[in-house]
């Protein structure tokens, strides 16, 4: 798992099977430089799907969807991140992986490897689950069967979300059964980058994904969700410890196999733009959350209230209390070196003369959806040339290309525990809501290396269990740091946490989906039109048309959620 890019030759061979929607196996088979599908080794097909799925999950959950759920805000290139200013969004990256995965399933059937087929069914469920969670209705039943001679398959119908979720659940149930009853002896461990052929861990993964999707449909199809969740709970076969988390680490050898904000590959530009959102940072500071020091860095230069000051604020920074004439800010690298050497940088201000308060805390975030976020907290260097010395950056670990903490997380024990806590509050027979809630927090703290702080943290007002779904979903939202898609999907079906948009948002409510992309609009327009017609439109996004980010898909229609 930690060496997923070791096998670059394997991945380059596998890449030939990520063929486009109009290519057939016969066409690939005539390529003298290609690999014959009839000779393909099922083990060699797995890494492309596993790596791609993990990267898609992380790239969404650490980037713009982290802005949606207000884990982070950006102070440069911020409109999509902070204020949901989105255009059409293509899903080709998902369907390319799904085509390779479909070949894995078919090839597994041809060679009689039930275990590989179960892996394919699990990854199919994960990827189609993401597609429908993000967009809504989508090609499913007739997808992945493209042929140049069959237009029904080239331009497949869009299935409803209900059909897709039910299909995802049935495939996961089949996969979990296979994992529990078939041998993994023909799995070459280094090609299984998640579990190295460990059948028990694959079964836990499939069952935990089932918990995710049962909870997703719990308000729409409770007759399916309730017995499903209870059955998996009674089996005891799901993620129960942070060491069970389904993750992919990064090698850090190139930009493509490194953490997305690795400063060594983009000169720190992406890292520098990401800042903690006050929506997340404020409650974490209020409860002395031990994850703060891992996820975020103290401000380089801290404001100090000083009513003896005869001007509104210091024109220059102070180093260990001494004004540095002519210096309004230092560069990031210089700040890091100076602070590491024990120096303290401040600026003083007089609120009586300035006319308003500044944020004087050691950790400072960005409010949501600011019109000019780079100027927040009286930054003397707005724009993108220097970082904002008066707002915290995300933690230094996120500058790195690889680290033990830098993992794409497909599903976690924390998430599973919070699902069971919510289920218990709903009245499902799954044990104690408090036990599951506390296990979720404990697992998250362990994941981030701060488990020693559990006893103090769980006793904090606001963290100590109060029996409400709001508290469970708030802590789950926090624990989904870098996995923000799950926090967004929870918000859509529950309205929790109660996010508020900022002044730069084009609408006064949060978005609930990605608009269908240009490829589909151009080449499968009739099906897109039908699918869009099944969305529930509102007064939001009217000028865009019904294919907008505020039109409600089936999963939240009729629920009055999230707004």
TrEMBL record:
The keyword Lipoprotein applies. PROSITE patterns: PROKAR_LIPOPROTEIN (PS51257). Pfam families: SusD-like_2 (PF12771). It comes from the Bacteria. SUPFAM superfamilies: TPR-like (SSF48452). This is SusD/RagB family nutrient-binding outer membrane lipoprotein. Keywords: Lipoprotein.
